[in-house]
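Input/output pair, single chain:
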Amino acid sequence: MRLTILGGGGFRVPLVYGALLGDRAEGRVTEVVLHDLDAGRLNAVSRVLAEQAAGVPDAPGVRATTDLDESLRGADFVFSAIRVGGLEGRAQDERVALAHGVLGQETVGAGGIAYGLRTVPVAVDIARRVARLAPDAWLINFTNPAGLVTEAMSRHLGDRVIGICDSPVGLGRRIARVLGVDPGTAWIDYAGLNHLGWVRGLRVAGRDQLPRLLADPALLGSFEEGRLFGADWLRSLGAIPNEYLHYYYFNRETVRAYRQAEQTRGAFLHHQQARFYEELRDPGAPALDTWNRTRHEREATYMAENRRTAGAGEREAEDLSGGYEKVALALMRAIARDERTTLILNVRNRGTLSALDSEAVVEVPCLVDAGGAHPVSVEPLPGHAAGLVCAVKAVEREVLAAAESGSRETAVKAFALHPLVDSVNVARGLVEDYMGVHPGLAYLK
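Output:
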């Protein structure tokens, strides 16, 4: 079975390959094709993968190419993990937004809109090529903003594109851990959009264990989201929000912390990864050791400003091991082998959340089998959550409309309607400044 990874020179690709090395079942991946526009990055990542595979019997073969069409032909699964504009683009998204006094995070607020505007046209082109060159392939989307990009691609690939994110899985795992519950036996009642969802229940043998957590201040203070949001606010909500909702619930404090930081997250990652790829230009450098050292630093500093703002402390060791690659491979195995499982995924709504239309991509529990991912019916969102989800989905639709029409006016509307952008004049300034720094937005007229 052939797996193609778009963005194959990306820093996190060894996580995926490392997970593949432990798979010994029938129907496993036997060839990995890496595609990237940057041959130097492809070479660096290929070296890391070669060291990972050393001494592993029957390790999947690896082939790298800068030709997109070549990488897609014959693929059974395609992982899309592209970053249009690179990490420098992300850093610019952050700087422009913060200069206007609003959040520049890569998936939330102004930064997420800017990233979406330059990513959607590229993602749509990929979807069309997959439909033409590998019509039987399943596309698993890693690319942020994951829900928005998955919805753009679904207009060309239907249900054969599925978006993934490790945030809901990590949240459910942490809740289960503090409750002393095996995550593998728990049903996580999670619903919303990508990076905008809530755990509303955690059921074991039919009994909801979440009320026990919400009633115990000590338990609430013993895991990351409890410290991040505070016990009082979680009890008020009656749910545990995805960590990205900290940008909404504590926006003023977060923007202040980001503006006071020495550098933005994107700038940090840009410098850190540039150093990694530069080190691996030396053919004698230990590729895997260099990658492991860089990865640990990356994971330990994740959402550092938010944790500082909330006084949440350092990340726990159990949360430094990533997880999105495990979700992706569990999804791929379930489809390829008809090994039925349940995963929280980004899929077309199909009536699952009553507040949204059928084609809207949502993030909900899904039953997965050889036929793909089937969203499970969930209870309606409470009013405060439904209102926020509908507002953000409306923004996503304006981003898609702007990307399709090339309308600068529609792009301004997308920014202005976002709950974290507080002025139409700010929205106009954001569009003007983003167009000034991103050549990829030249299509807006």
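The longest helix spans residues 109-133. The mean pLDDT is 94.
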